Amino acid sequence: MPGSSLWLLPPARTHPLHDVLATLIARTLPARFPHASSSTDPRVAPHFFPPHVTLTSGIAPDRYLLAGEDGRRGEGPQAWLEGVLRGLEEWREEFGPHVSLMYGDVPIGEQTLKEITAVVREAGVNLGGEEGADGKGWDGWDGWDGGVVWLVPTDKPMAEWKPIATVEL
């Protein structure tokens, strides 16, 4: 994917959804759906990443860097992140946030997507618009308060997806 992405990570030590998502990402989904969590290049092993919601993606660094007092673009990751945050209103309408559970370049069919969705729901994750077992409310988790926002260079190989800048909420 071109450009960088903003990820919202759940609080690592204080919210149970962090561990549930981490288990889905690193163990459950790759074991149950090995083809869907792979690459067309057999030399590329699955890459595991921290649990997160992708807030937006395709952030071009040359477009969203802040201009400094001398008129040049700001330098450094913090200036970049501040510039990105200013553009979020525009991106909000272009790209919907989503929970990222698998990355790969193998297309996932509709039936496999339904099966993945069922596994995620069984783990207690609310994917939106769902009722609980009693038909009234959801029995699992559907979000979290706080966390950390990461700016991640997702235009690089997955093994290089390390945060460029972070902001704790």
TrEMBL record:
One Pfam family in the UniProt entry: CPDase
Domain of life: Eukaryota
Recorded coiled-coil stretches: none
An example molecular function term from Gene Ontology annotations: 2',3'-cyclic-nucleotide 3'-phosphodiesterase activity
Gene Ontology BP terms: cyclic nucleotide metabolic process
PANTHER family per record: 2',3'-CYCLIC-NUCLEOTIDE 3'-PHOSPHODIESTERASE
Protein known as: 2',3'-cyclic-nucleotide 3'-phosphodiesterase
